[in-house]
Amino acid sequence: MTAALEPDAPDARAAAFLARKARAFDDALDAAQPRVLENRDTEAVHDLRVALRRLRTLLRLARPVFGRFHTDAVRGAFAALQTSTGNLRDEEALVETLDALSFDHAPLHEWRRRRLARERRLRQSLVSRLRRGELDQARALLHALLVLPVRPDRDPSLRIFARRVVRKARRGVESRRDAPTDDAVLLHDLRIAYKKLRYAVEIFSEALPTDLAAMAEPAARFQKRLGDLHDLDVAIAALGRARGLASESRAHVIAALREARAKKLAKYVAEMNPAEEIAPDAPSVGVTPTEASRS
């Protein structure tokens, strides 16, 4: 049997590397599923969600190599589970955001109890999906995809492929860098772009030159800052739609959320100046909102 080439070997190919990464994410899914079913620890759902998200990201990037039709069929098999874990995460984030306010207000406590009941229903829905075998079925499709042969003309040099993927993800960030800080939708799009860049760099880090590999840290940092803002924007919107909460109570809580958002925004703006001087010809992955004063 021919020994596998190292990722940085001149003749390393993309297909073998992508298959190895996909199997590693599949192993993570296999390890997380029984933990979720048995409710062994609080990190089980988080680990399942991360493995699903990273695997589906890798499959999206692997379309040119494995073929769009079959790759998208496998991605689709995991989609409902990823949505289920994402909905649960959003509900958990909402509760955590409100808890962080330490807001001692009886009407809000009652509303929170209703939201906690919704969180329990979402968690049970995820468990039911796993027990029905949805994850096992999706993993079986993944295994089939990974044993199919790849056309030689679709299997480029890993070095070339990795650089191409990361540079495309970086352009996605750069095209959204001027998102106004008071526009929740555009900031969310920017956060997703940073997440795509971060995952692309982390997946291909072994095959990237130092300048491109260095983008993982700032991408993760800005993703986190924008994620904090997103959680507060979601909470503000949820309170605005809240039923059974008097307008006065709603106004008090939203005011507290807006104050918390202003503090998070100040931290984000303080860090947004480009400090990632990766290479003289490499555009920054930092953000420079043009309308920060509007918030």
How is this structure best described in words?
The chain has 295 residues and is mainly alpha-helical. It has two domains: 14-152; 157-284, no CATH class. Helix content is 72%, strand content 0%. The protein is built from eleven helices and no strands. The protein has helices at 14-38, 44-61, 63-66, 68-100, 106-131, 134-147, 158-174, 184-204, 210-213, 216-241, 247-271. Residues 275-295 have low confidence and may be disordered.
Key phrases:
72% helix, 11 helices, globular, 295 residues, mainly alpha
Residue-averaged pLDDT:
86
Radius of gyration: 21 Å
Structurally, the number of domains stands at 2
Strand content: under 5%
Can you lay out the helices and strands and say which pair or pack?
Blueprint: H1 14-38, H2 44-61, H3 63-66, H4 68-100, H5 106-131, H6 134-147, H7 158-174, H8 184-204, H9 210-213, H10 216-241, H11 247-271
What's a concise summary of this model?
This protein is mainly alpha-helical and 295 residues long.
